[in-house]
Structures
1.
Amino acid sequence: MLLLLPLAVFAKDQVIRIVPQPESIELVGGTFKAIGAGVNCDAAFDAASRMVAQDFAARMSLVTGKVSSFAVPFGITASVEAGKIKGFVFIRDTRLADEEYRIEIGRKSAVVRASGFAGLRYAVETIKQMLPEAIYGRNGAVNADWYLPCAVISDKPRFSYRGMHLDCARHFFSVDAVKRYLDVMAVYKLNRFHWHLSDDQGWRVEIKRYPELTLIGGYRSGTMIGRDFNSDDGIRYGGYYTQDQIREVVDYAARLGITVVPEIDLPGHMLAAMSAYPWLGCSGGPYEAWHKWGVADQVLCAGKESTYEFLENVLSEIADLFPGEYIHIGGDECPKTEWEDCPHCQAKIAELGLKDDDRFSAEQYLQCYVTARMQDFLAGKGKKIIGWDEILEGELAKGATVMSWRGVDGGKEAASHGFDAIMTPTSYCYFDYMQSKDTDKEPVGIGGFVPLEKIYGFEPLEGMPEGAGKHILGVQANLWTEYIATEEHLQYMLLPRLLALSEVQWCCPENKDFDGFRSKLVEHELKILDIMGYNYRRLD
Ligand code: ACM
Ligand code: ZN
């Protein structure tokens, strides 16, 4: 008997519920006893991949109280073909793409195929979601019988960039809180963590060359209260990550298959840096890390060479700390009022021969110069830049990637001109926006309205000009933290919307269905979040 049911697949009394929905699931009848089954891993995998299999065996043993042995036997493929290996078998199959995997569960063995680390990780996440929720806990299932339905699952993601952002500048979150954020991203197969590390209200990453960035710029002497822009609590607030802590987070993320994309937002959103080094600004200050939210008029002076020297020194250390290919250089919300009156900026504009035209001002072209110079500098370190969609205003050098936040038009424009783009429009992807219109019952927030259904319904390629879709690398949601001061509130804003995001990022449109998704949440996923200890918003 062969059953082909794309969204809810039943085996005996079992239903396969996986978020994000795999590309294909075929039930073939029968069950596989998972408890106590050994884990056999192909020696052809690298050490990091073997660790994924070994960690799975250890987790099975921990939660079931029955040992799942781990072995790396020789000639694994031949043994499987001869039917000689039982239990879980992880085989390296170089025909599969990086993030692709295949699971064939028979009565005696569950064979997983992947070409390397990423595919293997996703296969294990899929298997964990097929098991009882207790697999995510510490000790839940002693003496239970755990069976997997015999099935063939083939899967790979729709988009290669599946991001989640976190603003640690407006409010600071501990290394442990960041790790918990990464943990839940990993369950849902996200692979990029966009870490917003600097803003007007705080500088959060230790830079050895400029210690006062964190010692002074890491703290503000007060914060507005609630939504009252005329208030100030007068309480010193701040914190930062040492370089050792940054490396710890980067390594932790890598083990979860997540690459960290650091953001140093420039040339706007720089007041905290300017409070430490006032010569960075047009007027020379003094400046103070901001107490309130919004867009500050004071930005880096783009006329002085000392600003570029500073940025290059900072970005050098950032490039050394973060091994990923991308560095995000911000570029959003940079008012030009100070540049218009600054003799240094105006001299630079004259030197470069920049002129107003009918589309953009000379000052906007000056920002393009800043962007291009940083892009060029980072290219020398083997890095590519991402910038918010404002970097499209004027001229953009080839090779830059655009993050489309003011709607999707920036992404479409970028892609149609051959730039890679990542979709993160406010209307679907801003997880600081409210989850209900009944805002009295919600924690204080920035406003807006992005409920679960809304993010789920996002189709990133809708209306994409012909041939441009291939430049859309993927989708990301952003979590700005002006109004989010605690980890509990942070998780509440993240979850369960992250799960809807994961289906937008992973699934082809024909494999999506909101009602089916919602049932998976009710019947399985929210229990996973419970057992992992997350705070999430209850479904309406
Ligand atoms: C942004 O929300 N300012 C990128
Ligand atoms: Zn200036």
2.
Amino acid sequence: MYDNWEELEQSIKNCTKCKLCQNRTNIVFGTGNKKATVMMIGEGPGADEDKEGIPFVGKAGQLMNKAFIGLGLKREEFYIANIVKCRPPSNRVPEQDEAQACLDYLRNQVILVKPKIIVLLGSTALKNILGKEYGITNARGTWIERKQIWYMPTWHPAALLRDENKKIEFWNDLKEVKNKINTLAEK
Ligand code: URA
């Protein structure tokens, strides 16, 4: 574990713990407010993210940004990261060994940010963070508290591009998050 951001980022830049390092253009470390109340966790970089080194800059990310704006939330207020820091080929789901190799980096980010709320964007984030027994269809939209962190699983924004009906649920889940931010701030 690293107690500073620079060393953590450098160690990921040098990382060769799994095969995803072989084809990366850039690592996608994470972005946003390093003291955020809310952390968003996605799956892994796509082509645009690999090119730019920033999470959720492609189509899915742009859709997520629109939801933030609509709800009066600011992307810069959050810390945004992924389960894996390097792009899986053809945007496939990260394999178990790849996610396992990368999870300590994410744990380190969570320890440094100290979020009160973690939004799990899609099945890969949900299963790797809370456990394989969870399924996104059932778990989404429900709060799960663990070790004083509130988790909100919701759809991955890319799922909204494939299925319009999921947009309203995603929107409602983010509204829940907004309400929780306010409730926790009042305490
Ligand atoms: N999908 C993700 O899960 N993460 C990104 O950063 C981009 C797309």
